[in-house]
Design goal:
Layout: H1 3-17, E1 26-30, H2 40-55, H3 64-71, H4 75-87, E2 106-110, H5 119-132, E3 139-140, H6 144-151, H7 155-167, E4 171-174, E5 177-179, E6 185-187, E7 191-194, H8 197-230
Antiparallel strand pairs: 1-2, 3-7, 4-7, 5-6
Helix pairs in contact: 2-4, 2-5, 3-4, 5-6, 5-7, 6-7
Length: 237
């Protein structure tokens, strides 16, 4: 196991067993990020580097392998997107984000987002929903086309990520409808509710425990089969 992977796994376990004030487990992203025309891979890398810079060792730059593993992309893609972020002046020589923004408006992302195993596409869609959410109700209702245009994905791919976010207990999705001036009923935009990040953490932990139990049962079965094979009576010739 490499240093980056070890650091990621240790950080993941610390989130599940050591949970400080939720407000301290977030980091800011400027609203203007959606004007920068970043691909989902580039956005996720930039957000991950922001997280590392704010909450982790600021002197240790992550490797392309670590970034690729953490965000579910190939190493070549990670290298390409890091180079693009550097070219556009969004990273310095130490891979520290340089977030130039004309405004003072920011939204925040939870640190745990990078340890729920959802990948760069779902991370980017989730981030856009957080950008859109009403801070009082934690709800928003952008259209699928609006989300797709903002995160540079197809509408079909966006809906796949929405389903993943819902399955992972990061959001709740409610279908809406409206009646037009002629009395006709039409489907409206989905209403998205941002759920407490603790719900996603608990769900992820439960899934990990289930997989661990299944693996233990499998190992025990294989061990018994191996023992039976070794101790089976010899067949007479």
């Amino acid at each position: 196991m490499g240093d980056g992977e070890h650091r990621g796994r240790c950080a993941q376990m610390s989130f599940f067993f050591n949970q400080p004030d939720p407000k301290r487990r977030r980091f800011p992203i400027p609203n203007d990020v959606w004007k920068w025309e970043l691909k989902p891979q580039g956005f996720a890398i930039l957000a991950y580097l922001c997280y590392l810079h704010v909450h982790c060792n600021k002197n240790a730059s992550p490797s392309a392998d670590e970034i690729a593993s953490q965000l579910h992309m190939s190493k070549d893609m990670a290298v390409k997107q890091i180079a693009e972020l550097n070219r556009r002046g969004l990273l310095d020589q130490h891979m520290v984000p340089i977030l130039k923004s004309n405004g003072k408006n920011f939204f925040s992302l939870p640190n745990e987002l990078f340890f729920l195993n959802i990948g760069h596409g779902a991370i980017t869609v989730y981030a856009y929903l957080l950008y859109c959410e009403n801070r009082r109700t934690h709800q928003c209702h952008p259209s699928c086309r609006t989300i797709a245009a903002a995160v540079h994905l197809s509408a079909v791919t966006v809906m796949k990520h929405i389903t993943k976010l819902e399955d992972q207990r990061l959001i709740a999705v409610e279908n809406t409808n409206y009646i037009d001036d002629h009395g006709m009923k039409w489907n409206g935009n989905n209403q998205y509710t941002i759920l407490p990040i603790q719900m996603a953490m608990d769900h992820c932990y439960q899934q990990q425990m289930l997989r661990l139990e299944e693996q233990q049962k499998w190992d025990q079965t294989q061990k018994r089969l191996g023992w039976n094979a070794e101790n089976a009576p010899c067949v007479p010739l």
